[in-house]
Amino acid sequence: AGEVTRTHPGKSKYCLLPRVTFLFLLIVTLVFFGYTSLTLRSQKLESVLAGVSMPVRADHLQAVNVSRMVYLQPDLLLVSREDALVMTPWLAPIVWEGTFNIEILNEQFWLQNATIGLTVFAVEKYVEFLTLFLETAEAYFMVGHRIKYYVFTDQPDDVPLIKLRDGRQMVIIEIQSHARRMQVISNFSQERFLGEADYLVCMDVDMKFSDHVGVEILSSLFGTLHPGYYGVKRSNFPYERRPQSQAYIPEDEGDFYYTGTLFGGSVPEVHRLTKACHQAIMIDQASDIEAMWKDETYLNKYLLHHKPTKVLSPEYMWDKQLLLLPMVMQKVTSDDLIHQPARLEWCQRPQTAFLWLWPLSELQGA
Amino acid sequence: MAKLLWTLAGKPNGHLPRPLIFLLITLVLVLLGYGVLNPRSQMLGSLGASAAVREPDSLEGSTLSRMVYPQPKVLTPSRTDVLVLTPWLAPIVWEGTFNSDILNMQFRLQNTTVGLTVFAIKKYVVFLKLFLETAEKHFMAGHRVIYYVFTDRPDKVPHVALGPGRRLQVLRVRSYARWQDVSMRRMQMLSEAAEQRFLHEVDYLVCADVDMQFHDHVGVEILSSLFGTLHPGFYRHPREAFTYERRPQSQAHIPRDEGDFYYMGAFFGGSVPEVQRLTKACHQAMMADRAQGIEAVWHDESHLNKYLLYHKPTKVLSPEYMWDQQLLGWPSVLRKLRFVAVPKNHQEIRSPR
């Protein structure tokens, strides 16, 4: 027969101590288990896009030896632009007309013998846009430098054979029509681009070049300001606002709203970006979340946590129809706009124009 | 507590068998130890072997980066009175152009180590104490720093208390009789040291004159591949008035129609490879001049200016980073005076012995 031991109230407190101590130890153990496991779980929830939060590697480019050049002396007591911010708070240039001397920059990049890869996706009916895209690129994009066009398409036979200038090549790569851009660029960065190009410029195809787009845009990692949002408060940026998504950005965070139509950088940095975005898209897909603006949403999350080393002004991604709308650009008169270079323009209007009709009160600084 | 545990273990009519109690105790202690030791080992790890005795208060480098700060305004310049970007798109660093929190995080995530070189030859050792003490307050706070003190009088190097993650190395070098030679030979000494030791010890080098003190924040905003600092006496002047070397026979010659800025020889730097290239090129140019029997008008500064004209720096520091309040006052264009000259008697301090 088992022995039943009972504690009697009359017993000395010496007997109660073991039980109290045991309970105390048990509680402490449980608390620690709970704490550590909770910490681990919350870490896993953090987004892939922010998780490995490494900053962009410093631009350890060799300062190249330029030759004698004659140009106007920079005036230290004169702003280059009175109407715009030309440098981000993390000291990345924001590239506007009037901020740079293209001769100096051209020489610096020639001396490095830089090759620039331009990636463009022309799938299904988007193949139509290739002719205008490539012809205008020949006229305006990085003229005088070594260029490789990487045309990703599901209809390789329909790619127009454009006459290319010296030092410029076109590579046609067949992909499936449902292939994902971020994944394709990420894979090719490792397999091919690394050996062939120093910089990558990733663009949408439904565009045409209408003014100079040159080496002033090149750096380790660059994004472009979306023309519809550069005057808008961050809480109104069309970031992903659902916390479950990998692309989630809270309303009190965000530097700029970058467009998905033009981004780039060094091959390693573009590889990192596209890989991270692709992984995030896949994770969201597994959770049945689809971001509203697709690649662009994930790009924005990535560039928030991996600050670009250059930012391109909306000159680099313009929409002429914005000219017709009232006061999205408060500080620029319509006269100025006529002289502003609109370097790249959309050929096709987006289906809905509601994006541009922000009430004045929502505008930054209003 | 231990006494209780032992009593518990030893009590014959305890409610639990002895081995189980021991197991519980061990388990709890293990968990306690894990919880306590883990964060500290992370912090020590981020400072490396040179961690000081004091608890590091460094910015945690490995946590995720949510940051809240005012939104940048695309249509509002950060400064309306000065140029903040060179024509080759290098930032010109002025107060108001940068957010230190963002920059600090970026550089801490890379576990950046900055080397600060300074030469204290002969009587110039007297400047070290103030230089180092003020550097402790204002230079790269929160980051790993190694001071490299080049001196011919190692015993005269003062003992200055250093914060965590910061250490000092004394490098013994020879002196020269002429102060011009003392100044110029720095290029040679820096280029040799860059190759031999800096490359393995630091990510960036900042090369400063010793007869200076830090008066306000000088941080990671200055760091890039190659940076020069605007000379306080010339930032308003046309290039024809810059005191470049004008004799074509000199390696440092710059014609009157060329020149971006006049940089000061007292504060320059960059990544170790870039500083090595610069100092080596300047030293070789000075030796070539010497062989021709010519010495540039402002010595190493003249050669520095020639180098930076043809190898554009990737950042330029405003005169906030190199000022002389006694000579130049405090104009409104300078919101901060960060690194300032210490008044000295030139004749006395530059004596040959």
Automatic annotation (TrEMBL), chain A:
It is a single-pass type II membrane protein. Its main location: membrane. The keyword Manganese applies. Binds 1 Mn(2+) ion per subunit. Keywords: Glycosyltransferase, Manganese, Membrane, Metal-binding, Signal-anchor, Transferase, Transmembrane, Transmembrane helix. Its cofactor is Mn(2+). GO terms for cellular component: Golgi apparatus; membrane; vesicle. An alpha-L-fucosyl-(1->2)-beta-D-galactosyl derivative binds at residues 226, 296, 319. UDP-N-acetyl-alpha-D-galactosamine binds at residues 121-123, 126, 204-206. It is found in: Membrane. It comes from the Eukaryota. InterPro entries: Glyco_trans_6 (IPR005076), Nucleotide-diphossugar_trans (IPR029044). The active site is at 296 (nucleophile). Belongs to the glycosyltransferase 6 family. Synthesizes the galactose-alpha(1,3)-galactose group by catalyzing the transfer of a galactose residue, with an alpha-1,3 linkage, on terminal lactosaminide (Gal-beta-1,4-GlcNAc-R) disaccharide borne by a glycoprotein or a glycolipid. Preferentially glycosylates proteins, can synthesize galactose-alpha(1,3)-galactose on glycoproteins but cannot synthesize the glycolipid called isogloboside 3 (iGb3). This is ABO glycosyltransferase. It comes from Prolemur simus (Greater bamboo lemur).
TrEMBL record, chain B:
Pfam families: Glyco_transf_6. UDP-N-acetyl-alpha-D-galactosamine binds at residues 119-121, 124, 209-211. One of its GO terms (biological process) is carbohydrate metabolic process. The active site is at 301 (nucleophile). Keywords: Glycosyltransferase, Manganese, Membrane, Metal-binding, Signal-anchor, Transferase, Transmembrane, Transmembrane helix. The keyword Ligase does not apply. CDD domains: Glyco_transf_6. Mn(2+) binds at residues 209, 211. This is ABO, alpha 1-3-N-acetylgalactosaminyltransferase and alpha 1-3-galactosyltransferase. It comes from Prolemur simus (Greater bamboo lemur).
